[in-house]
Amino acid sequence: MLRNLPPVPPGFVGRRGELAHLDDVLYEERVVTLTGAGGVGKSRLALEAADRVLRAGERGAAWADLWPLRDDRLLVASVADAVDFADHTTHQALDSLADWLADRDVLLVLDSCEHLVVPCRRLVTRLTTACPRLTVLSTSREPLGVPGEHVVAVEPLPPATDAVEMFRLRAAAAGTPVSSPADTVAVARLCARLEGMPLAVELIAGQLAHRTVEEVELELGPRLDITAEGSPPGPPRHRAVRTTIGWSHELCAPAERLLWARMSVFREPVDADTVRVVCAGGPLPADEVGRALAGLSRKSVLSRVDAGYRMLDTVREYGRMWLDEVGESRELADRHAAHFLGMARDADRGWLGGRQAAWYGRLGSAHADLCAALDHLLSERPDTAIELIGLLAFPWSCCGHLREAAAYLDDALALSTASGPVRTRALWALGITRVLRGEHEHAGRLAAFCRDRADLQDDTGGTLRAAYLLGLTHLLRGRPAEARSEVETALRGAGGTVFASAGHVLCRLVRVFALTGEGLLDEARREAEELRGGCVARGEWWTRSYTDYQLALIALFEDRAQDATAHALSMLDGKRRIGDSFGIALGLDLLASALAAQGAGERAVAAYGAGETYWSAVGHPQRGTPELGPVRERYEDTARSLLGDDGYERALRRSALSDPEAVLHRLLDGPRGSS
């Protein structure tokens, strides 16, 4: 069952009637849209409703943030990411997503659709037509216009009751509780003038760290007088939010106002170091950033998310307006892109080191900002964009963003005039995306071209990477001897030790696979153990997990089921650490075979069932090198004989209907005895 919702903050106030209504309509209607002004609380209400659905335990729920998207280019990819679909297919993206969701009972939340109403309408219409058990809950400032859409207009909180309660809770959380009768009366007057708009209430409560309630009312009250001359146009509740944001902006110190504007460039929560690197400069020195961050947090302009800071999209819009006003939009986009290019370079340099898994995590958490950097560079400096996507495509390809990697590579290669190793690296990365989608011939042609280009450029790293890709295509087409010949030639030409570079390691890994495929098991085992030992010493996980894969396979060939189980579990642990869903699917198949060989029938079938779900999540049937197929078939038969046909089918259905991550957790972290 999908359980992909953001953390639910404590202190939800009111909305009992709306929640009760949503409890009903989310089971009766296919498309429900929460509409209302920015700052009225649509997203918070949607999150609370989705959490209630999830806690009921009858269906899954997934959340897709759409506000970071500049246009619809990454719309389908964002939704696929939300529902754990790592698309490795060659089909149309929306068709593949619809196939993945076809039989799933899921509530999909699309948050902040107002700037993508037409593409969201197309997406929702296609998905609800193809997926009979899917329900969509969207938030938007206007309806999507989908046939049969049930629209719920989200109103402000009742000013005299819930808005006051929200004000009191937020003020208390900020360390300035409202306690005296006079202050309570003043808060009630303020909430009435704020029209009960939650965002406005939060911002005003944040000002109590520096002002009394009386001072806030005296300063803000005249601005909120809707009959006052020169008041902003629009409905009162719109004016309340705009006025409150504007007043909060005026009350910020100059450094805080500048930081507010500059931080509007970010799409994801960011830590203080990243803010300092991108946003410091000029009248905002680096040593002032921490103080400005603290001030914006106290004023509720920023909220804390784990170790980072996040700005609500309505507040971000205001900051972006001011960034345009001060003429820094282009400069900040450049600095933002430069920072994330630097992150990608550091991650690439650190790929073989002890922080490899941490780098995968950082690239994953910064995904929306990396996409924003690519979008900016593609329009302004495509020769830099091609370097960035060339660095990102390999980690993206195995961790759920294969289709995005391929699309950005296609665009960068078309727009960039760069030549030399940077272009060769991008072409190699494109080959990786092709081979993972099963396009082996195309990948082989790209690999051969990259090899020739790298040789001409005297680019040893490029030659080794090309040999790895060529070797991989040979392995997947059942040609292990050709794969071994390719990488051995490249390794002889490059010289150096096993861990001289990432290219050396990748070629050594192909050699291990090839030796196993040729049946040279003793030699394959020795090489795999040597390579694994070096990975363990360095804290590297990607290669280590594939050496465990090979050692598990070799152990099965040699009827050492216990060793095979240990290596398969170790492989899965590594793939889980870096979020490699393709590798997890492979590892579950291998673990299932090893468990069946040990006589652990129930656990074997649990692994088979979870493996089927993971294979489905990459959009194609089971894959791997050809020698794995007969192993799967042999031990599936073994598991069936252990449990009997009926017992096998029951256990398989039970596992296939379970949350695959929960099954993986039990297999890795639970009791490891036979069932």
UniProtKB/TrEMBL annotation:
SUPFAM superfamilies: P-loop containing nucleoside triphosphate hydrolases, TPR-like. It comes from Streptomyces triticiradicis. InterPro entries: P-loop_NTPase, TPR-like_helical_dom_sf. This is Regulator.
